Amino acid sequence: NAGVTQTPKFQVLKTGQSMTLQCAQDMNHEYMSWYRQDPGMGLRLIHYSVGAGITDQGEVPNGYNVSRSTTEDFPLRLLSAAPSQTSVYFCASSKKGQLDEKLFFGSGTQLSVL
Amino acid sequence: QKEVEQDPGPLSVPEGAIVSLNCTYSNSAFQYFMWYRQYSRKGPELLMYTYSSGNKEDGRFTAQVDKSSKYISLFIRDSQPSDSATYLCAMSDGNNRLAFGKGNQVVVIP
Prior knowledge:
Number of helices of chain B: 0
Structural class of chain A: mainly beta
Order of helices and strands of chain A: EEEEEEEEEEE
Oligomer: heterodimer
Shape of chain B: globular
Radius of gyration of chain B: 13 Å
Number of helices of chain A: 0
Number of strands of chain A: 11
Number of strands of chain B: 11
Radius of gyration of chain A: 13 Å
Distance between the termini of chain A: 36 Å
Largest interface: A-B, 23 and 23 residues
Shape of chain A: globular
Strand content of chain A: over 45%
Largest sheet of chain B: 6 strands, mixed
Strand content of chain B: over 45%
């Protein structure tokens, strides 16, 4: 099993550009989520999903969109990138019934917005 | 006041020493407590998980929870250079809410 796979690993954008960060998991996990990690701020939840077709906002959702059309995939869209979105982004998943307690993380996407 | 407080200051210890990390929290609804380990340029991985007050051991690692004081700790015995990483505490109320501490960078010097 590959676990949680994120692409790309690195990305540089110009202000105003849009892009999609990809996340896929092969563990048949119901719960998927996106976090951003900034120095001195820890991990902050952006959006999460408890199953296909269901998404909800986390702590810092502004400027990001998500959708969950399949159990396996949970892409994160930046609509109009801003320098404040420079961060490392992590996708995470867990089994149904263990929604938050045992998260499996991807290896991250390092995003720079110029 | 942030829900979870973790002093992010880097911690350097000689190989073989005991590493002691801790977090405090303010939300009484938290009932699940975790420690994640994150190596440089990698995603966090679950290290320890507990849902009750008291101690839980796993090899060289001991997680301690004191719900009455809202305080959790992680101890690493006989620390090794391979333990050099950032350690994040995390806690949940079981309702899709997981709160992380800022993380503690630990460096074990050979």
